[in-house]
Amino acid sequence: MQPQALMRSPKRKSSPRLRPQPKHPLKRLLAYTRHYRGEIWLASFYSVLNKIFDLAPPVLIGVAVDVVVQRQDSIIARWGVKDVFAQFLILSVLTVIIWILESIFEYAYARKWRNLAQRIQHELRLDAYNHLQELELAYFEERSTGGLMSVLSDDINQLERFLDNGANEIIQVTATVLIIGGAFFILAPSVAWMAMLPMPFILWGSVAFQRLLAPRYAEVREKVSLLNARLANNLSGIMTIKSFTAEAYESSRLAEESQAYRQSNRKAIALSAAFVPLIRMIILAGFTALLLFGGMEAIAGRMSVGTYSVLIFLIQRLLWPLTRLGETFDQYQRAMASTNRVMNLLDTPIDIHTGDITLPIHEVKGEVILKDVTFAYYERSPVIENLSLQIPAGKTIAIVGSTGSGKSTLVKLLLRLYEVRSGTITLDGIDIRDLKLRDLRACIGLVSQDVFLFHGTVAENIAYGSPDANIDKIISAAKVAEAHEFIMQLPQDYETIVGERGQKLSGGQRQRIAIARAVLKNPPILILDEATSAVDNETEAAIQRSLERIIVDRTTIAIAHRLSTVRNADCIYVMEYGKLIESGTHEQLLERGGIYATLWRVQSGIK
């Protein structure tokens, strides 16, 4: 890489514009599931066929009545079968066939819709989670873990429940209206309008209820998100709650969130519960009109008794299922509110994009240069301002300073967890924004003061990031980190479960497992972010011994508040308010008598 490459004005990839998405959540969902379109059509086809065979028995009843009344003049007799027994035998065979086919297609649509629901929710959850992993840290710092969990779990499950049942219900109700409506106009056009009269009012009422319910269910989803956030936060901080005897206080705060969720549901329920009774009254008008005027038509001989029987049965099959629209629309609105939240997450733009340059880990030398770097967190003044410093390959560099001076922020910038606002950071002469993110982060090992261990075994946590490592390599890394001895004293040594966040281990034990994890990764660049700040002197001495072996022949960046841990560094950079104040070796900085010398005297007790 040419030296002038460091001076160029880097062309940054701007965040891509969001693809225009249909505003309605159902259209957004259909756009997302377009590659399932063939299976959705097949499932819908099974639903329609099931409904066709489900509506056939009332027709057979009407034909049977016609045989009883008309006998040799019945509909079947006109086909050439005059014998009454033979006519009933034909009806019996048709009944068996229709019921079998209805059962087959009920099995087919139920299996198809449920499997589709499972596949879509599985894919949607993975896509949403993978998208979350691509977002910068600022996104997570502005949102609660419980709220994000609500989207990934509860909202996607809500959508799954609708696809399980609601989609089939809507299709079958639509098929029922079309099939029976057509049958009415064919069999008895003079009274068909009576059966159809309630339909516009039912459809209008359904649409009106849908519009009224939409904002209420959006509020419900928001309230459950806040409730989940409170629960997740309290369970994570249960030790603090207990130590401050704040159980009653937290219980009251949870009660407030739960009550807000209950009230928002109450408002939605008050409206959704009114749907079925109102629709039932409209249905009553159509059923009564057909019962009365259709009966008079049959008495007058303008309609056969069999046809009248079919119409009475069919209007019930047409109108009464419409009462289930209330429950179906309830499911639908809950699912659409959840769909909006999931799709909004998927539409969140990714601000940090991977570069195009590949840098294999074995080719990394480890020279890091920061030139005129400025960075500020969202809506805050700069934490780092016009910072320039050089970290030579294979050397140990320490960065020290008071709390809030920007030391830990540098770590986040080096890993591109945040993007610099101006200036450049280069690795081996290449702007890190041009490197593939995976390559950049693969060559950096981080040991932070806030060690995160996953719920699993000690071995699994040491091998995290190195999944192919065998037990011998894991043990070797643990020995280098001086962790092997205490691990062997655990109940199941390397197979001991550490608990969530490693809560079954002490701070020093967690720290040494984190160091073993970094050793196993064997990165060319090692970042130690206050790695010994929260341990006792004996543990610190053990960690320091292991670190002295680890940092050999690799670039090491030690972020420290305790100066005794970095006095042997090749160069020490002193930061204050995001700016570089001093630099040099321990001895050189003491001779200058500046900020570092003052800090050293305070920490060492020298007056």
Automatic annotation (TrEMBL):
Its main location: membrane. Residues 9-22 have a biased composition (Basic residues). The chain crosses the membrane at residues 88-109, 170-187, 268-293, 299-320. It is found in: Cell membrane. Keywords: ATP-binding, Membrane, Nucleotide-binding, Transmembrane, Transmembrane helix, Transport. It is a multi-pass membrane protein. The keyword Nucleotide-binding applies. CDD domains: ABC_6TM_exporter_like. Residues 368-602 form the ABC transporter domain. SMART domains: AAA. Residues 1-22 are annotated as: Disordered. GO terms for cellular component: plasma membrane. Pfam families: ABC_membrane, ABC_tran. It comes from the Bacteria. Residues 41-334 form the ABC transmembrane type-1 domain. PANTHER family: ATP-BINDING CASSETTE SUB-FAMILY B MEMBER 10, MITOCHONDRIAL, ATP-DEPENDENT PERMEASE MDL1, MITOCHONDRIAL. This is ABC transporter related protein. It comes from Chroococcidiopsis thermalis (strain PCC 7203).
